[in-house]
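Lesson 9: reading folded outputs for more than one chain in a single document. The general rule is that every protein is listed as its sequence immediately followed by its structure tokens, and records are never interleaved. Here is the first one.
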Amino acid sequence: MPKRLGVRIRTGLYIVLLLFLVFVGFFVWYETNTTEIVFRCCINSIVEVKATTETIGESFGSAVLLSENGHFVTNAHVVSYEKFGEYVLFENVQI
């Protein structure tokens, strides 16, 4: 193999390696910034939920507010409980 061809192959490999590292660096930077942006947009809509009833007691959990008029999403076990095989909603739910 001529010496000049070996230098070209090595230079080509360095260029490919450099492009790969730039791609990986961009991907890591993009993922970090995207996650941070989503977190900053959503942090103010996450709330604590407290549900109470006189017979059972209280339940705590978290919820995400969906709209300004009070609609929120949470897990069913936060706002309901099982009594004699049926699920019953807690009497009071506070955010």
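And here is the second record, again sequence then tokens.
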Amino acid sequence: MSDAFDKQFLELQKIFIGNLPERKQRINAFYLALNSNRLDKPTLENLHREVHNLAGAAGCYQLTNLAEEARLVEDHLSIGADSEPLQSDCWWQALENFIAHLSGLLDGASPSG
């Protein structure tokens, strides 16, 4: 890659990282809303979409750890699309753990990871 491209990429990556607190806030808001009404499909879909978008964008900006964790959360949310897992305390505990880990990665996101 050229130096000009690298510089532009790093600037865009920096902007993306700067916007991660907003993404974290949206993910946490959807998670809390879903947790208060476990059968709310639109909220589940919104949370899934937000995490899906995060996974894709993090991958594009070479934030590998964040992208991989977001994909794990996304996969777990896909399982929840069926109402049965939404009734399972085990599924909810796993989702809580995934969200907590993802939240930590969002707090510490840096170009190196």
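What the second record shows: The first helix runs from residue 3 to 18.
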